[in-house]
Amino acid sequence: MQIWLNDKAHHVESAVDLSSLVEELTLPSESVAIAIDGQVVPRSQWPQTPLTDGLKLTVFQAIAGG
């Protein structure tokens, strides 16, 4: 399946929901936020949010600094 990840086409191997996508991409789940069509999906809903072909996701990573 192909999704759009931060405006770039990305082929998904085995992920079926947002939680498994975070694992597949080896992202640190505690420091990322994911939006679908501009709407942030709460982390608690990642396992229930299915991936579909052509889905447009934006991944934001927390940056610490001062």
UniProtKB/TrEMBL annotation:
It comes from Veronia nyctiphanis. Pfam families: ThiS. CDD domains: Ubl_ThiS (cd00565). It comes from the Bacteria. This is Thiamine biosynthesis protein ThiS. InterPro entries: Beta-grasp_dom_sf, Mopterin_synth/thiamin_S_b, Thi_S, ThiS/MoaD-like.
